[in-house]
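Structure tokens please, single chain.
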Amino acid sequence: MKKITLLLFCTLSIVSFAQTLNLPVRSKTALNGTQFEATISSASLSLTNRENMIYAQIVAGNVPNFYRKLDSVVSTGTTNGVKQKVTYYVAPDYVTIGIDSDYYLCPMSPMLATKIGNLTGTTLCTRKMVGDVWTAAQVKLQPQTIPPSSQMSTVPVMMHHDSLVDSLRDTYFPAHPLGQLVSGDQKDVVISNLIYNTANRVVIFGWYYPTGTYIQPMTNVHADTYMDYSHGIRLVQNNCVLNNSIQTTIQSVLESSAEDSVLSDEGVIAQPWYPYWITLNQPTSFALLRNTPTSLKLVVKNDTAVTHYNIYTSTDGINYHEYVRMRKSNLVITGLNTDQLYYVKIMAYDSLTGATSPMSEVLAAVPSSRNDSVLMVSGFERVITGNTYNFTIQHGNALFSNNKYTESCTHKAITDKLISLQNYAAVEWIAGEESTADSAVTPAEQNYLTAYLQQGGYLFISGSELGYYLYGTGTSADKLFYSNYLKARYISDAPANTASKYYASVVKPIGTSIFGATDSINFDNGTHGTYNVSYPDAIAPIGGAAADMHYTTLDTDYSCIHYKGVFSGGTKTGKVVYMSYPFETIYPALGRDTLMKDILIFFFGPQTLFTGIDDNATPVNPFVLFPNPNKGEFTIRCSQAIEAPLEIRVYDISGRLVMQEAMQEQEKQVYCNGLNAGTYMVAIYKGDVMQSVTRMALVK
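Here you go.
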């Protein structure tokens, strides 16, 4: 206990703090640390009752004055060669109860830590952050260890350890007053992917020596009901600042594959929290729809506990604006740019209690006057390393780069009837690695997809476990759906029955392919920004379908098939493209864009890339562009005589016209040296009718 008078030392500290812990003013009659220890020291007191008593003290604001002032810490990291930093604010010590002159360092379970975090708008450190906090600490204590025993988790031993730390901390006065950032007095309960490796575990790490080494490697061997004298809870304000200007949250950074390295040394942490005391349900059934040329509309399944939603918007899916809070009765996002792709995620909010939900996954849509959007259905909610719940980024960008706009929804929005597949000429279903644990394409979803295809819908579906789930382990109804509507025969759970080995497929020499590429299409092994596709299904076409690609094993281990025709029970011609590894894991982005272009041409014909849907278009192309790639100078040659003036139009990947000039001869030299390096669409028009379109790579 802090039995000596330290208030004088506190008054000597003239430190500027940027943030303050959000707690009520402490009552003058509240217990000091010694008194509170006495109330919880009984061996007969249950863990639940003890933690309820701790929480009651925190809710009442019974923490020292120095503990309310948060210290800034800066963490840095490099992603894709770009160095970034996050500035965040941490409590100067582990959770304490009492007053400046007599306080108690209070070990607790991750359940209680999460509950306090919800109360105060805070979270916990990751392993990397613990090291960064130690680096920033002005006071680096020597760990005060106690020999292991069966009594380590009892309050008397916790009190004894607290007195040891207290005596050591006193030796730093007056040069280092209370409120300066302290490290070394306890281990940290941390945020980690290990939280979800085994159910109901606490993850601990650290206890740094002044030399920079530490005692405890990261481990989750203990149950979440266990804590001993060394388990400390460092509160970190969830709100933080990215690269000096972007307001974001610790959780958002950890969920982002473009930012995670700043705060995490174990990659993306898809669910950066302990799954306790979430007072509002995470929004999982909602849609993002085109509303007007300058607005989007959210449709969310009603939750009676929710009064508002915090709406986060972004134009790249990575960097989000500060949220706007909207009443759930009017979820229209206004003031947007026409024909711009937007990404949106939401958090439920209750104005009566101030409670918020976990963040939703990310959806995407384009505000526009056009009405030919492709519906993206996000159906990948399985908790795995690398699932960042924002793969609408890869899918949405691929559509948008081909001038095809999108709306999107979660898969639950389909079965909850918030949105109808029948309103869309084409649907893209993102199945990711959904498998037996998460029901990849449930029976109800199969019913909606069956009706959609029977009525002439166009479906592009991708996922690595669809065959394994629907046919390898499925019911008879699952197998019928897989055969009759995905038009596939399941061969094996991985190419050549070998997992974690094959990460590419090829088009050549399949003459039936809708794809024009002849080289390998690569997908992620876990090192290219998404997740490890270790079990991509090997499939084969049946029922009139044709093969598009096979793995780099056997020619008969197919990875993508397509079908055009009347589906079983249907009356209209529908189409399906089924890829047996997740589309979002293809790299580089140009490869995804090229495949999406060919899928759209299969669905709608080549004119869809610029003029909308045209089922009657016939892909005849007498034009050739060379060299490709080029440095801004290329030739267009036509194999037919030009009877009327043509126009060459060059579009960037957003569909913006960046150059145009006339073509009156069979061969035309074009110069566009002023354009930046990147991918462009070169289209040939006769009047307002497009004759040809070619993807061109401009390099510098």
